[in-house]
Amino acid sequence: MKRFLGGGAALILLVVLFFAINILADTGLTGYRIDLTQGKLYTLSDGTRQTLARIHEPITLHFFYSKKLADDYPQIRSYADRVQEVLEEYAAAAHGKLQLRVLDPEPYTETEDKAVEMGLKGAQTESGDRLYFGLVGTNSVGEREAIAYFVQDREPFLEYDITRLIYRLTGPKKPVVAVLTSLPLENGAGGLGALLGGNAQPYMIYELMQKDFDVRLVGPKLDAVDPAVDVLLLAHPPKLDPATLYAIDQFALRGGRILAFVDPYFEGAQGSGLLGQEGIPDKSDLGPLLKAWGVAYDPAKVVGDRVLAQRASTTVDGRTQVIAFPPWLAVTKDNINRDDPVTADIGTVNLASAGSLAPIRGATTSLTPLMRSTDQAELIDTAQLHGTPDPFDLLSRFQATGERYVLAARLSGAAHTAFPNGAPPPPAKPADETKSPAKPGDAAPKPPPQLMESKAGINVIVFADADMLRDQWWMQPTDVLGQRVAVPTADNANLVLDALDNLSGSDALIALRGRGRIDRPFVVIQDLRRRAETRFLAEAQRLQQRVAAIQDQLRDLHRGAPADAAGVTPQEAQASQKFEVELLRTRTALRKVQLNLRRDVERLEAWIRFINFGLVPILVAGVAVVVAAVRSRRRSTRLRAFRG
Predict the structure, then answer these.
(1) CA-CA-CA-CA torsion for 440, 444, 448, 450, nearest 10 degrees?
(2) Cα–Cα distance, 461 to 463 (Å, whole number)
(3) Per DSSP, what are the bridge partners of residue 379?
(4) How far apart, in whole angstroms, are the C-alpha atoms of residue 415 and residue 436?
(5) Please, which pLDDT band fits residue 4 given cuts at 50, 70 and 90?
């Protein structure tokens, strides 16, 4: 009886301790967490702490959250708890410089009016009330920044969004970015037609740039680059005249920072001409500038990579197949420079028909690769991509060179002018302008003397692809309360913004952008699929050659044998029958390889699912059974010893 009471008391004590620990954790330990994620997504980064340390005047964060209305929405309630915990960490890390106010804007209250006044948008609930879930930051001079609504799809970017809001309120002057481009960055793919129709959607990268930089569109013709410009962005520029090239040349030699996107085959060029306007050029380069900066670039070649290839749909034997398309690349972190601050935290970058960059022998500049292909790559002539290229045809011709091609690079060091013979002559003025009499004070200011070499080395970053700027290559747009929100599928935008930050000298946000997504692809499955596709293509090519040989035999028979009354010789009839049998065998063999490919992949995926969802629980249960058996045996042994 005493033993029973003792055991019962112990059980009751365990229950009491269980509830006590949970209550203590729920009330007193809410600010403590252990971050076990691979990328430490739930730990404030150094970039955030640097931003908080730069706060000189108090900043107030108003966290509007309709707590009572959210009771019916568990998913929102859970995410709101996460957001509030993060905001509390910010307030604690700021040491009094950041004040956090948590407000519940109940319907028809002054708090709700304040949320609307500050620019927040509530989501309408089934009851007709609006649920608010946003953040407004204010500083001492009355400036205001807001996150209108916390979209759960952007949870991996939560720290970046909050830190960027605080960064804007600390009052730094926005760097000036001058943009020279042929792309409709302001109006989107629809161009002027979309603008006139009220359907213009700017490139999302352009919208993000405007939030952090003073963006000014210039050109396409320049006499000089404004000295106020911090970074000159050349985004798939049109064919530039000598005067504009000279202006860019002198800007670089004076120490001006340049971010350039050139492209040997811009896939967004098709059908780009609207309302009589010139279409987007299908390729771009920088004339003599890249050569002067020590870079070799062939605008007629794109990089194909069998390992980094994205997958595209094509039709084979009347069926839709998804197969690797070598010119479309998903560049992974293993092929990205981890030592450069621009690319150190970048995960995956999607490119389309990118070119290659290489250092010129004897160049005085230094070319540092930022992104490369794998050694399973080759250069493909752009002529093979016109029209509707066949992925099977490209893969069947593919011959890896073993070279890792540079897709993006940083250029630095001493450079010489691209105009060693002097500045190009100014363009001739129209006849009506030349005849007009000169007026006092109309004389053009004398240009500064030409720099023949850089003062302190150039600072240029070049990407050999411009399609990476287009929305469809890096994001899925989501509409939240009438507001377009980007849900990234790749790090293209982060990379562009990081490059601008680095070139303009503001590095605080760079480390944050790359923390959002951690890609954990099934590498084994991808390798298996590539090997199976290689076997399939080899078999397909062999069988197609056999079919072509039989077709040649048919043509030879038709030319050399007399026809009977039916117009078909016995030899042709026999050869035709052989052709049909061979064609049937070909299709059967191709389908067998495809079936084996699918079975291999499905079998491996099944094993992975079993390991993740079956094997681990079985092992845990097995350990528990063994432990229970050992304890039971020990108790039995002690009981027998006690009775003995």
Answers:
(1) -140
(2) 7
(3) 303
(4) 41
(5) very low
CA distance 168 to 177: 17
Per DSSP, the residues of 582-601 read HHHHHHHHHHHHHHHHHHHH
Q: Distance between CA 250 and CA 453 in Å, rounded?
A: 9
Rounded to an integer, the average pLDDT of 261-279 is 71
Residue 505 has pLDDT above 70, yes or no: yes
∠122-128-129 over CA atoms, to 5°?
A: 45
Q: Could you tell me which of 167, 162, 170 has the C-alpha nearest to residue 88?
A: 162
The size of the chain, in residues, is: 644
Phi and psi of 420, rounded to 5°?
-65, -20
Amino acid code (one letter) for 602: E
395 C-beta neighbours (distance < 10 Å), count: 22
Q: Which of 301, 299, 297, 274 is nearest to 284 (CA)?
A: 299
**For range 487-491, the mean pLDDT:** 88
Neighbour-count burial of 491, counting CB atoms closer than 10 A to its CB (0-12 exposed, 13-18 middle, 19+ buried)? buried
3-state secondary structure of 238: coil
Judged on CB neighbours under 10 Å (0-12, 13-18, 19+), 162 is buried
Integer Cα distance of 427 and 244 in angstroms: 11
Section 291-306 average pLDDT: 96
Structure-block tokens of residue 75? 């998913």
Residue 643 neighbours by CB distance under 10 Å: 6
Closest CA to 380 of 398, 407, 406, 403: 398
CA distances from 197 to 186, 189, 206, 543 (A): 14, 13, 20, 52
CB 347 within 8 A of CB 335: no
Distance CA 136, CA 146 (A): 4
Residues 541-556: pLDDT tens digits? Answer: 666 666 666 666 656 6
Residue 321 has pLDDT above 80, yes or no: no
Predicted pLDDT at 173: 82
CA dist., res. 318 & res. 544, Å (int): 16
Give the integer Cα–Cα distance in Å for 154 and 151: 6
Average pLDDT over residues 277-287: 84
Q: How many CB atoms lie within 10 A of CB 457?
A: 18
Closest CA to 359 of 255, 462, 239, 237: 462
- Separation of alpha carbons 525 and 608, rounded Å: 10
Instruction: Return left, alpha or beta for 362; rule: phi > 0 is left, psi -120 to 50 is alpha, else beta.
Output: left
Q: Concatenated DSSP letters for 368-385?
A: EEEEE--SSEEEEEGGGG
- For β-strands 59-65 and 133-138, DSSP reports them as antiparallel
If we measure between CA atoms, which residue out of 49, 53, 55 comes closest to residue 171? 55
Residue 355 phi, psi dihedral angles, 5° rounding: -90, -170
Q: Distance between CA 210 and CA 175 in Å, rounded?
A: 10
pLDDT at 519 over 50: no
pTM score of the predicted model:
0.68
> Which residues have a Cβ under 8 Å from the Cβ of 22 and sit 6 or more positions away?
none
Cβ(133)–Cβ(70) under 8 Å?
A: yes
**Which three-class secondary structure state does DSSP give residue 220?**
coil
Average pLDDT, the chain: 81
pLDDT (tens digit per residue) in 110-127: 999 999 999 898 888 888
